Amino acid sequence: MLLRHTTEKEIDRKALTVNPAKTCQPVGAMYAALGVHGCLPHSHGSQGCCSYHRSALTRHYKEPVMAATSSFTEGSSVFGGQANLLQAIGTIFSVYDPEIIAVHSTCLSETIGDDLGQIVAKAKTDGKIPEGKHVIQAPTPSYVGSHVTGYHNMLEAIVKYFAMKTDEAKRQVNLLAGWVEPSDMRELKRITGMMGIKTVLVPDTSDVLDTPMTGKFEMYPKGGTTIPELVSMGDSMKTVALGEWGTKGAAVALDNQCKVPFDLIDLPIGVKATDRFIMALSKAGAVSVPEAINDERGRLVDLITDMHQYFYGKRVALYGDPDQLIPMCEFLLDLDMIPAYVVSGTPGKSFDKKMKAVFGDKIDQVKFKNGANADMFQLHQWIKQEGVDLLIGNTYGKYIARDEKIPFLRMGFPIVDRVGHSYFPTLGYMGGIRILEKMLDLLMQHQDETCDEEKVELVM
Ligand code: SF4
User: By alpha-carbon position, which residue is closest to atom 2 of ligand 1?
Assistant: First the structure.
């Protein structure tokens, strides 16, 4: 009983969050920056912040995460961190030689009012940025938003800095990935490859945070979107942006700056959201959907049909990021499951509207909460009031799952006590099959372990 003090009775709380369903903005900014080839993330704040951001990513991806810090002291915390950042930029280029430094702010540097744009401009005029090298910057004050907001802000900064419109239109589609695993980014490229569409995927953390063991340390692994690819985005035919919370700013920036129109759709999780993704790609690239993709869809639908009895009527509690939660709820509803409780600490005005659109006349079945006060303590209280058959979310749910004896599907960020998420996608039709496999394993295992002896089935 690790959470023995969680009570069933809810007390109205306005100024207290217990076990928030989110983490810190710069973690997301760092993750987005790592998806650009030759880019070194830089945390403008104290060493403690940077250590936390790096370790959060390293623990999830089981890969070393390189990043630099402005190393604030008491002096810089009072008088400003400009001198630290200027010195850092010079040192980083001379010692670590990245193509790009991606600077994000922290709570401390935002609170004292450091202006990253002005400091980076000064670094340029002071000659601290070598010819052909780049420094981009994004604001990531962690006392608002979440890791997803930080990801969004850095992705927007990357696109704004590099994308350029020329007279030479390109037969290619920009694909903006919301916060997903390297395996998902690899899957997105596999799907667009099957469809024969040339795409620029940004960011792309495949071959950065899922690198093969070669015995050789690479400060800048071979993966990541390259600078020429980023520049070329301004000449693309269209942008397909996956996940409002992660990608909207970048999609709008490409439209405003380079007149590349965009489709902003959900992450392709489950049947319907993947259908929308495939149709958006087909339209953007002016290609038809190949039979091999139809076959993948057919296999997913076949699995749903074969195993429907195990999904039907099962109550589920979910927490995590809105871009994952919304299509995941839609998928669960398609399986005739009941997403009973949904919590996301990443704020966003359209969360309620999207949930209502997904649930339709079933909206009364679900309790949901979004924003800074949405926390896992309340989710646990709801579960105590009326139980669920499955819990879905990041590693932090394991205490609830253990106390309440609920099968627990790890999904989202961070997952620090299991592996697999970096290697096996959950996006697309094949990702849908993976989600179903994992859910079925848990539900059937639970049934095997808890049903009466005379009800143990050999064939399921
Ligand atoms: S102080 Fe702010 S930026 Fe630093 S680790 Fe904490 S939440 Fe993140």
Answer: 107
Give, for ligand 1, the residue of 30, 42, 43, 52 to mutate: max count of ligand atoms closer than 8 Å to Cβ: 52
* Homologous superfamily (CATH) for 293-454: Nitrogenase molybdenum iron protein domain (3.40.50.1980)
Convert the pLDDT of each residue in 392-427 to its tens digit.
999 999 999 999 999 999 999 999 999 999 999 999
Ligand 1 nearest atom to the CA of residue 106, by list position: 3
Mean model confidence pLDDT for the chain: 97
Please report the sign of the dihedral spanned by the C-alpha atoms of residue 113, residue 24, residue 137, residue 162.
negative
Cα of 25 from ligand 1 centre, angstroms: 8
Q: Which CATH superfamily is domain 25-158 in?
A: Nitrogenase molybdenum iron protein domain (3.40.50.1980)
Q: What is the pTM of this model?
A: 0.97
CA gap 225, 37 in Å, rounded: 5
Q: Which of 370, 393, 347, 177 is nearest to 265 (CA)?
A: 177
Taking each continuous run of H as one helix and of E as one strand, the counts in the chain are: 17, 13
The whole-angstrom separation of Cα 332 and Cα 369 is: 18
